């Protein structure tokens, strides 16, 4: 049996990466068009939009939920951004 390494499992985890479908669609497009990126720009944009949406959602809701005592599981990168003091 082929086993995925820990990083690959994280990327496939819907809770950590809510944009799995968009990621898969981008990869399928690349495979279908022999890795001609110009043919897959729509798929890439969908993936970028999805990641941006979830990134902004976590950044806007996580601090308020944490202050209210709700446990929020955020990926380490987002946790680092949330915890960082604002630069003025």
Automatic annotation (TrEMBL):
Organism whose genome encodes this protein: Astatotilapia calliptera
Main location: mitochondrion
A GO-annotated cellular component: mitochondrial intermembrane space
This protein's UniProt keywords: Disulfide bond, Mitochondrion
Subcellular location: Mitochondrion intermembrane space
GO BP: any one term: mitochondrial respiratory chain complex assembly
PANTHER family membership: COILED-COIL-HELIX-COILED-COIL-HELIX DOMAIN-CONTAINING PROTEIN 7
Protein name, per record: Coiled-coil-helix-coiled-coil-helix domain-containing protein 7
Family under the similarity heading: Belongs to the CHCHD7 family.
PROSITE patterns (UniProt xref): CHCH
């Amino acid at each position: 049996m082929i086993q995925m390494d820990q990083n690959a499992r994280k990327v496939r985890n819907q809770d950590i990466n809510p944009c799995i479908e968009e990621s898969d669609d981008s990869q399928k497009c690349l495979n279908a068009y022999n890795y001609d990126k110009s043919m897959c720009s729509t798929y890439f944009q969908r993936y970028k939009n999805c990641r941006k949406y979830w990134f902004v959602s976590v950044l806007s809701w996580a601090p308020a939920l944490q202050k209210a005592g709700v446990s929020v599981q955020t990926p380490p990168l987002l946790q680092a951004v949330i915890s960082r003091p604002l630069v003025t």
